[in-house]
Amino acid sequence: MIAASDAYRMRGPDFAHLVIDPHIIYSSDASASQIPENLDNYAHWLMGPYSLDGQTFYSITHSEWYACLLDNDCSADGYASQGNSWVASSNAFVSHDGGASWQLNTAGGTHIAFDPGYHWTGTLAFQDTIWAYADNHTGTFQPTRVIREGAYFYCIAFYIHRDFTQINPSQGVYGAPVDATGYVLLRTADITSAAGWQAWTGGSTFQPVANAQFQTFSPQQNGSPLSAAPPQIIYDTTAKQYILIFTLFGGSNPVYYMTTASLATPSWSDAVTIGGTAGLVTDPAGNIVGFNDGNYTSIIDASSPGYNFEFTGGSPMLFYSTFPANYGGNNIARDLYRVQLSITYR
Question: 320 near 280, Cβ under 8 Å?
Fold first, then answer.
């Protein structure tokens, strides 16, 4: 899928022969764009569809809403007002026709899977339009594909929480400090419903997301945390390990990976660079080497059994997107590339 608020898909017999299907599969502009905050139905990016039968697909989303919508001033300064008042959540979607069209999944009585972002309506923060002066985005961003272990379906998202009690507009303090950030592990026993998602709180303990107890974790290398961008996950059937890949925010970096034998009781290894990625030329003009969060790295193995690309047997591909404006193209279009990876087992 081409993940966007208006979504399309690429189709073909294999990953070497994909073409863009011109038929839109979901339009936030046409089907969402509801401004009231409690509806959680403004702009959706379909992330990691999952199927049990190859016909009906379920997906959680990266969903965006902006407090500036309530004040009708999101366009006053370009993207800044949206970005500064951005709340990211995840919602449930369903397709009954193999992914050709999508709609909100309300089978469990709600389409809201997890929404731990700050709620602005009726607050001092909204009254004082603090997004006009400082970055205050919150929530869960860009969840990975859904991957099954035992009786549960898991994903990992990037999380930002802020302490809005610390703002003081009368004293010129408009930025709520971040008091928790990193990756969060989430799971559900029923992928067909939005209800029932749980958040990892440490060890082997998970609590309902409504409890707002999200234990964050960050990739570590030599005892130091890395400023890791949103990740992607796959299960290696040979090593019997889950592999989480990611790159860093900004700059020019390698792609990293870390592993754990279980998601039910996660214990992550130190982060290790994927060989060759730090020096890989990632744009056609040869001007950019390495990766950052704008490349949206992903990992897929074409030989994965089933419908969901959860697995690799040792020969996955690394996918990434680029900004064509860096080499004379249309920045909105983006370009998608893939490189073959190989795994050495020790």
Answer: no
- % of the chain exceeding 70 in pLDDT: 99
The long-range contacts involving 162-170, CB below 8 angstroms and separated by at least 24 positions, are 162/118, 162/136, 162/138, 164/118, 164/123, 164/125, 164/136, 167/124, 167/125, 167/128, 167/130, 169/124, 169/128, 169/130
Query: Which domains occur in the chain, in start order?
Result: 35-217 (no CATH), 220-346 (2.115.10.20)
Average pLDDT, integer, range 235-239 = 97
* pLDDT mean over 33-44: 96
Cα angle 185, 182, 86 (rounded to 5 degrees) comes to 100
Report if pTM > 0.90: yes
With the C-alpha atoms ordered 168, 171, 173, 177, is the resulting torsion angle positive or negative? Answer: negative
